[in-house]
Specification:
207 residues; mainly alpha; three-stranded mixed sheet
Length: 207
C-alpha cells in the first residue's frame, strides 16, 4: 500500500453516492504464499474465488470503478468494513459486515469493489490456520448468513451454489498446483459441512 493509492481511495468518497468499500480480496491474499500448509492454501483460494464469483455475478462499472449492482442488493451481500460514519448502524445479527453492506445499499448508496489488490485493504496478522479453525469459522459464518437472510428477507436463488461450485471447478487452475487444487477441494468440503452443522446444531455461535 502507498500514499497515492490511499488518497485515490479516499477521493472516491468525494462522490456523495459512494457509501462504502467492500472486502474485495481475502485477508490472506498476498503477492506470494506465506504459508504452504493445506489449510492455509485452501482458505486463501476458497475465499479468493468466492469473492471473484460475487464480483462477476453482482458488480457493474460506474465511473471507471467497480461497484455492487444496486438492482441486486437483496441477493447476496458483500462484506463491508470501510464506510461513511453517518451510515453506521448497530447490528442485530452475527453478520455485522453483511448487514452493513445491505444497509448501505438500502439507503441508496453505492459500494465500491476493488479490482486491484494493491489498494489499501485488510491483511491478516497470522499466517497460520488449521482445518479445525476453518470449520469453526464457516459454521459461524453460515449461522450469520441465515440470520441476515432472515432479517432482510433475502431469497438466494437455488442455482447460486451450483453456479458457484461450477465457477470453482473452472478456475481451480488458479491455485497453481495439484496441492493447491486438493486444498481447495478440502476447503469446499469443510464449507459444506460447516453450513450443515450450523443448521442442525443448537449451540452458541456468538463468538
Amino acid at each position: 500500500n502507498n500514499k497515492k493509492d490511499f488518497e485515490s481511495m479516499i477521493s472516491w468518497f468525494d462522490d456523495k453516492s459512494i457509501g462504502g468499500v467492500a472486502e474485495s480480496f481475502p485477508i490472506e491474499f498476498e503477492t506470494g504464499k506465506i504459508n504452504n500448509s493445506l489449510a492455509y492454501i485452501g482458505n486463501l483460494y476458497g475465499n479468493y474465488l468466492w469473492i471473484e464469483f460475487l464480483k462477476k455475478k453482482y458488480c457493474i462499472k460506474y465511473n471507471n470503478i467497480l461497484v455492487v449492482d444496486s438492482s441486486k442488493k437483496n441477493v447476496f451481500p458483500f462484506l463491508v468494513n470501510i464506510f461513511r460514519k453517518n451510515l453506521y448502524k448497530e447490528n442485530t445479527t452475527l453478520g455485522d459486515d453483511f448487514e452493513r453492506s445491505l444497509e448501505i445499499l438500502n439507503n441508496n448508496y453505492k459500494i465500491v469493489v476493488l479490482d486491484n489488490p494493491n489498494f489499501p485493504r485488510m491483511h491478516t496478522l497470522s499466517y497460520s490456520i488449521s482445518f479445525k479453525d476453518i470449520l469453526k469459522q464457516k459454521t459461524r459464518t453460515a449461522k450469520a448468513r441465515d440470520q441476515v437472510f432472515s432479517k432482510y428477507d433475502i431469497k438466494v436463488n437455488l442455482l447460486f451454489y451450483p453456479q458457484m461450485l461450477f465457477y470453482y471447478i473452472l478456475n481451480i487452475h488458479k491455485t497453481g498446483s495439484i496441492k493447491g487444487a486438493f486444498s481447495l477441494f478440502l476447503w469446499i468440503i469443510i464449507f459444506i459441512y460447516g453450513s450443515f452443522i450450523s443448521k442442525i446444531k443448537n449451540r452458541n455461535l456468538s463468538t
